[in-house]
Each structure stands twice: as structure tokens, then as C-alpha cells.
Amino acid sequence: MTPPQIFAKLKALLRSAAGRPVPDLWDAIRNAFTRFTPDECRNCIASADYDTDLPVAT
Fold first, then answer.
1. Is-above-0.85 flag for pTM?
2. What is the pLDDT, as a whole number, of residue 17?
3. Backbone dihedral angles phi then psi of residue 3, each to the nearest 5 degrees
4. Cα distance between residue 24 and residue 32, in whole Å
5. Among 16, 28, 41, 58, which residue is least crowded by beta carbons within 10 Å?
6. Which parts of 2-57 are beta strand (E)?
7. Secondary structure letter of residue 44 according to DSSP
8. Which residues contact 17 (CB under 8 A, 6 or more apart)?
9. How confident is residue 57, by pLDDT bands cut at 50, 70 and 90?
């Protein structure tokens, strides 16, 4: 996934959690990030020309 695709996915996930108070929004953001696989993150970083040989936390 490219960075714009990652942000589109994040926005869609946050929209599905619409209209929440700020503390609940932070929870929605945390939950949204769990929907990204390590490979998606690595591919996003690679498509932005960043170093991809760094370990990914799981």
C-alpha cells in the first residue's frame, strides 16, 4: 500500500467510528491501527523510499 492508500484506509476506519468524544476517538485510532498488517506498513514505508530493513514490532 502507498501512503495515500494507508491514510484512506485509516480515514475509512475512523469514519465507521463516527461522532465520538475525544477519549473514544483515541480508542478508535488505536483499534484502527491494529487493522494494518506489518507487511502493509513495510510496503508503505518502501513505497515512500524509506529504509525497509528495520525490524517491525508485532
1. no
2. 79
3. -55, -45
4. 12
5. 58
6. none
7. H
8. 24, 25, 28, 31, 32
9. low
pLDDT at 24: 86
Q: Estimate to the nearest angstrom the gap between the alpha carbon of 39 and the chain centroid.
A: 12
Place of cell 488505536: 30
25 CB burial (10 A radius; 0-12, 13-18, 19+) = middle
2 within 8 A of 47, measured Cβ to Cβ: yes
C-alpha distance from residue 29 to each of 17, 18, 49, 56 (Å): 9, 12, 25, 19
Q: What is the pLDDT of residues 9-35, one digit of tens each?
A: 888 988 887 777 888 888 888 988 899
